[in-house]
Batch of 3 targets.
Target 1
Amino acid sequence: MAKIAIIGGTGLTALAGLQISGQEDLDTPYGRPSGPVSRGVFAGKEVLFLPRHGYSHTIPPHKINYRANLWALRELGVQQVIAVAAVGGIGAAMGPGVLAIPDQIIDYTWSRVATYFEEGLSKVVHIDFSLPYCEDLRQLLLAAGQAAGLSLVAGGTYGATQGPRLETAAEIARMERDGCHLVGMTGMPEAALARELELCYAACALSVNWAAGKTADLITMADIERELQTGMERVRQLLAQTLRMI
Ligand code: HPA
């Protein structure tokens, strides 16, 4: 049974090179995931794949059933999750095209169902989330990047915003003062729910634009699409090398 899953983000609704052998259409106690989970072989390894926005990229960040997605993966025996995310760059080192393996998170999202621990509890549960990403998997991604000759930024704080709109320049300035290097809309509650399920979860973030106010230009979808096209090929190479090294 496959033990590793890839959650695809914007620009990765299909994983080129994944030889799909089947799909698992699961229901969970929390509702349905973003779509059936694809089972297959990628870079010679058995893997599961789920695009968090759905296969047709129709589910906006605040409507994703994060609980169902992670529950379904765990039901299928997954222990490790690599989450792929398109992000905006805030820090000077995080311009468009940069691939980063973040090591911290600040959560600015609101009104999302963010825990499995809310009903029918015999006691209140507080998970430790000091280090929100699985360090072993982070190090593996970084080593794979090096082996594949890909330049990666090792670390960075991911600020998770509510979306679906992009941020104001003032919001990004505040996030920068808070210490955020990257901004995206899906990193939370995904990472926290993975921790609650005791999954080893790490993210691979592709910067596809300078965040609002970081340049004089407005952010256009055309610019984002262009970065996604070129950047996701490098993400694919990173994923392939990571799986080879597992
Ligand atoms: N902000 C939030 N999420 C994003 C961005 C951004 O600038 N770019 C890609 N995802």
Note: The chain has a mean pLDDT of 96.
Target 2
Amino acid sequence: MASALTAVTLLTGGGALAVGLQLATAPPALALDNGINLTPQMGFNNWNSTLCGDQFDEAMIKGIADAFVDKGLKAAGYQYVNLDDCWALPERNAAGDLVPDPVRFPHGIKALADYVHGKGLKFGIYSSAGDHTCDVRGFPGGLGHEQQDARLWASWGVDYLKYDNCHNQGLDAKTRYRTMGDALKATGRPILYSICEWGSTGPWNWAPSVGNSWRTTGDISDTWQSMISIAQANQGLAGYAKPGAFNDPDMLEVGNGGMTATEYRTHFSLWAEMAAPLMIGTDLRTAAPETLEILTNADVIAVDQDPLGRQGSVVSSEQGLVVMSKPLADGARAVTLTNEGSYDTTITATAQTLGIGGADSYTVKDLWSKKTTTGNGTVSATVPGHGTAMFRVTPSSPVPPPTGVTQLSDLPFGSAANQWGPVERDRSNGDHQPGDGQTISIRGTTYAKGLGVHAASDVAFHLGGACRSLVTDVGIDDEAYGNGSVVFRIYKDGAKVADSGTVTGKDPAKRLTADLTGATTVRLVVTDAGDGTRYDHADWAGAHVACGSGPATGTYPLSSLAWSSAGNSWGPVEKDMSNGDNQARDGRTITIAGTTYAKGLGVNALSEVVYYLGGSCTSLTTDVGVDAEANGRGSVSFEIYKDATKVADSGLMTASSAARHLTADLTGADELHLVVTDGGDGTNSDHADWANPVLTC
Ligand code: GLA
């Protein structure tokens, strides 16, 4: 899937690349990772069932905590019982402290938190990174009061903060959210930090080192249309999720009455497949048995809570039939087959499509019917309109990485030895506990992906002869404060194919590349540089392999090829039509300033579409522009990347711009990335066309 190794990148999902590449020059500074929430949070929040209604009070919250225990939700893994907006009075007290609403919470918040803790559960609260919270009956926000509010919550025993974005006075989001993150950390109490910035500034680019989850979209409502369009917007962001840091497509509506049971099963299945927070939004005291049955499906919850912490990604999407595949820690995949249309349809995906081709046989478990079969790994189901079938597909033997570019941190380990703590995925090695490292950082350059190890370390991956090459940066993590010295070596089967020489904590990142053609196994070895292993926190930063072959020699309209990933802020990426916002195939004939095109891709900023080229292509030519469908609005820019390097840029284009023609040299590239930015003014009406793009291989 994603490639790229310089800076914080992860090239699925809108505009990531463009933003990420600018981060490389910050001074060395450790990130704010708090080492909690290694799998997505599970719990309850009152908002979707009560808003600020009178029924939101102490009795309700206590009743929810009781229901967690009595109705099997605690046993199923739900942990947090959380308050949303309107728990406080509209004014602070004379000391400047927030005051619980005495009508709703006559015994105060601490007593309520104690009650929840008494049930073996955790307690969460809400505020906004602005001068007021969101509801008209809301209360003063945390902006400018971060330390004071964080200290107050910690003194009450708060375990979780949802921090909203209303009345933010237009101040920089990252700064506002970091300030509260710092304040929470300074309390010394572990507090899960749930950022609720609605996806407005592309928080996936900055939030992983600041909070434990970040909302990616506006608010969900209890309708199929709302739920599925939020799922679509969240699907393209798969590459940003990791243990301790998850995309949040908002809380669950399951049980609130606006969708059918089939639609609620889709909602729950997709949220688990996307490693989303599972925050129940219905009043559990009165929930129907059918609602509880959905919310406590242990197999589906196990997918959400899988320790690998990966978000599933879309591996095929045709005419509203969407297949997602989520890597799991044991080498299996969780698979969803979703029918966004209205009529029963059969959806099928092969083991190859799921990314686990190459085993002799597979066990396939239906996670709703619980039926298990053995076969060649093809999954198929007749799925009702708005329905989702969900499976766990387990290969009988280790399989090679799928065709494309794969981060090593997304693959199961063949073996993993490390002198201190475990080998960490997408964070440095903090010595002791799983997840105690920081965002990978070498002399101030941060990396979204990679492996954090500690000498002596030896990590092996099964490649099964499928891969061409490995590319990685290496260095000692900033966590070692300039200390440490190691040697990085890469072995192709028994033979050494790359050697960094001595790398110290003062050296900048070094790039290593290795030819892996034909290799059964690759091993990544770190040893101390002859001076003992003290401070040897070492990073394989952005380490990725390119596997399988690219397109055969020829000339291809891009819409005739399968992409490796495709993300948009609105609706799916469309082939041979413009993007009409929400539904699959709701666009029109691609039209730029009066010129129509039969072929192309219709996207909607922020967008990134990735194709695997496997080193076999030479160039891309395309027209670009804002589609006529945007009705005179919209402003975007089009950028083409050869792996991590930008090779073409349209500059800013508006609805009145004539089509521009771009050409890009792609010789030797593993991947082609097509990025559309929002032109710096938000994503409103940014319907953008890659018109008649032709790839030569
Ligand atoms: C915003 C948030 C919601 C909810 C309300 C409360 O809209 O996105 O999730 O917290 O505020 O007023």
Note: Residues 47, 84-85, 133-135, 164, 196, 219 surround alpha-D-galactopyranose (CB under 6 Å).
Target 3
Amino acid sequence: MPLDINIANTNPTTLKTGCLVLPVANQRKLSGSTARVDQACDGLISSVLKQGDLADKPGSTVTLHHLPNINAKRILLVSAGNEPVSAAAFAQLAASQANALNAMNTKDAVSCLLEVEVEGNNNARKAQDISNALVVSQYQFDFHKSAKAKPVQLNKFAIHNENKKDNKALTPAVARGISIGNGVHTARDLGNMAANICTPTYLAEHAKQLKKSHPSLKVTVLGETQMARLKMGALLSVSAGSEEEAKLICMEHRGGKSGDKPVVLVGKGITFDTGGISIKPSAGMDEMKFDMCGAASVFGVMRAVAELNLPLNVIGVVAAAENMPGGKATKPGDIVTSMSGQTVEILNTDAEGRLVLCDALTYIGKYKPDVVIDIATLTGAVIIALGHHTTGMMSNDDDLADELYRAGRQSDDKCWRLPIWDEYQKQLSSNFADIPNIGGRPAGSITAGCFLARFASDYRWAHLDIAGVAWKQGAAKGATGRPVSMLMEFLLQRAHG
Ligand code: BES
Ligand code: MN
Ligand code: ZN
């Protein structure tokens, strides 16, 4: 059953629910609903806190059962730290709440988390974060399992709101939180799917399915014949060794004015990256099924944009191909002509992401974009630079870079800018073609960005290298759904200010 989230304003002490969530911002002085409930149950909450049962650490929780004079079956206390809390800290509180509720197996809950004071966030934004965290926390991936996961219990949730005046703003905020969460689910599902199932053709089918649920989307798919006609020599060189046909998938959402230039998102969709003839070592190679997570994030964003019917023109483009060795595969030293006319010497067939992206970046020029953002698991080097926390961002436009940086901070799905100054362009020189596809070891993420920049000079453009953040390794192996949240924040800012 899909999760139902409402806004409610009933007395927390008399309200009947499986669980009432109360924030504890300052353990010494309770306020708002928490204080009222404490009073009603003769200070039981205060005495539990005095006992030290709730850790100070923001996001810590403790569950109390059957409090006297209270109708709620359980009380979940959530430690909020010192008010006002930062926007990022609040998002984490919302996540703690969601995880605790899922763990206790309650079917319904009412939360007073809106009462936490947050730096710079109004109640609508808090409601968005609360809803988003609930949806994201309920993610399960059992597509390939014969025993399906047990459906999550919690399906009825209410956000307690003292201030009735806000109610009107809260409902659309809840919708935003849910849709961004749905977008994250889509990105994770596609990322987690095995590469023998999730092929370029599968991704193209997914786009058509998306159109079925959102008929306003316009979907077009180019196959290899059409790409050859368009002279996409770089993109085609990547799929040359594969039995799977490459696809260029375009999804158009025209929610803005017809004259408004669109935001174009371009995702790297390498459904499996063996490295090609420059083959990768076998240890951990299974993780190269995640090499389409940029594309997956574009699908996630397009789903959320369509669900919310954002008043913007947004176009999502996915360059999907499989990078395999084979008799017809591209060899190191081969030279291809990109759609832009620039010739590329492919010195390493494992630097394939930039090859599919460069032709996509040329192709999307036809949309006369306002800004273009590409999203790609492009380089291992970005993990050396920024680890697994932060997306590497590069841009030819300072304002766009700032916008993305802020969107990352606000959504806690952060990026950090790396320079693509001319000095680095010098590392891209070839004796035989206009440009080589690799720039040597130093600044590997930057030279990849510099390569792309040569195909993006006609518009404002940013590149997001998500190789370090798109999936988790080890016991928690799986796609994260990043950077759907950052991109949605970016688009919502543009739509609503
Ligand atoms: N998909 C990889 C990048 C990657 C590597 C992402 C490891 C996440 C983890 C990309 O296609 C690639 O192979 N890049 C090469 C570029 C090099 C040959 C210049 C790399 O990073 O090693
Ligand atoms: Mn590669
Ligand atoms: Zn790759």
Note: The chain has a mean pLDDT of 97.
